[in-house]
Amino acid sequence: MDETQKFITENKQRFLDELIELLKIPSVSADPAFNQDVLNTADKVAEYLKAAGADNVEVCETSGYPVVYGEKLIDASLPTVLVYGHYDVQPADPLELWESGPFEPVIKKTEIHPEGAIFARGSADDKGQFFMHVKAFEAMNKSGQLPCNIKFMIEGEEEVGSSSLGEFVRNNKEKLKNDIILISDTEIISKEQPSISVGLRGLSYVEVEVKGADLDMHSGVYGGAVPNPLNVLSRMIAKLHDDDGRITIPGFYDDVEELSEQDRADMAKIPFSLDNYKKSIGISDIQGEKGYSTIERASIRPTLDVNGMWGGYIGKGAKTVIASHAFAKISMRLVPGQDPEKITKLFVDYFPTLAPSSVVVKVIPHHGGQAYVLPTSDKGFQAAKKAMTETFGKEALPARGGGSIPIVALFEKELGSKSVLMGFGLNSDVIHSPNEHFGLFNFYKGIETIPYFFKYYVEG
Ligand code: BES
Ligand code: MN
Ligand code: MN
């Protein structure tokens, strides 16, 4: 272990320089304009895995973007850890809100990161995080201290719903066989308070369209006498929540697993300052489902949110017009018990009933995924807890996360393995937003901690 940590200390600057190279490639999976960049990123990841000492490194074709695979199998009688991550990133827009180019990584100091943070799209989600595993592996491998077998599966479509990964996993069960999956694509509570995500929410994502007349019309000539799809859509969306912040779709809560009083009491112990929370995002008050705390609303309760809404005139100045169409993109975050397909169907059946007969409503389902929970009794959780507790010098807590990594539930179904979500990001990294960044403290703490996970997992 000492040799591994020594190797890390001696190579810190190089690790950072290599990450910077990776962050320069705009691997935006959602936008076809970046197709070649996404493919180039896969090649770069493969190159890094080889340089770290992985064998049988492959850029595996799928029906979408490739999965990068690599392995080091030292002894069949030892456990195998499968590391999962994603090399694709979210679109960088709105570009004008970035203080430096999203694909021109720079190190800047912030209040939370006086030692510096690396600013770039993908720095925290997830290039900076999966790269910690490549470097921790390199350190263990080159210092002769890799304690078990390791496999890497780094995909390029996580941010667009992992559409090809399910098939890849089903077709490669033997190759991907493992004892535990290790993922760094989530957060810790703070730099002082380590935590392990023991839950992820599921997702159902739909797009809706409301059509009125066949053409856009003068809002003076026709206004008041004809359906206005934007007015109608707003009313329909408003009806999806009641005054207590509960979702009104019939049957929506039927399968929700409620937490025990003990679990809720444990959650209430997580350090949380409402004032800091509000200040950090610039809101004067919070809102949400009645009867639940902010942490609960953002992790163990299902939600429904409009992610985008458009139609009519959105250019400069004023144009008087009644649009023929209105659109919205809506996400529902799901919790254990809820089935994404069932929830999508409930939405598809219910939403059109909220419309007047003057319009036509279409609902187009997008991707979805099941929620995930890891019991704290799991050997993988225990190893992660020991590892983080050791390197942070403070006991790591279990915490349910609000985000989704839909493929994690599928890993359990297809490979029969649990996933440990040992992420090192912070809420304040603003993933998916302008000025995404990843603290150098977090990056190096991750590289330092991962070898301890391997050690304790193999010993445990
Ligand atoms: N890394 C995130 C998920 C995440 C973030 C989990 C923070 C917990 C805390 C992942 O890359 C992501 O953004 N997932 C998407 C889902 C996907 C289907 C687009 C999400 O949660 O919106
Ligand atoms: Mn991610
Ligand atoms: Mn993401």
UniProtKB/TrEMBL annotation:
UniProt key word Metal-binding: yes
Name this protein carries in UniProt: Acetylornithine deacetylase/Succinyl-diaminopimelate desuccinylase
PANTHER family: BETA-ALA-HIS DIPEPTIDASE, SUCCINYL-DIAMINOPIMELATE DESUCCINYLASE
Entry keyword Protease: yes
Keywords, ordered alphabetically: Hydrolase, Metal-binding, Protease
Molecular function in Gene Ontology: metal ion binding; peptidase activity
Pfam families given in the database record: M20_dimer, Peptidase_M20
GO BP terms: proteolysis
InterPro entries assigned to the protein according to its UniProt record, in alphabetical order: Cyt/Met_Dipeptidase, Peptidase_M20, Peptidase_M20_dimer
Domain Peptidase M20 dimerisation: 198-356
Gene3D superfamilies: 3.30.70.360, Zn peptidases
NCBIfam families linked to this entry: PRK07907.1 (NF005914), PRK08201.1 (NF006053), PRK09104.1 (NF006579)
Organism domain of life: Bacteria
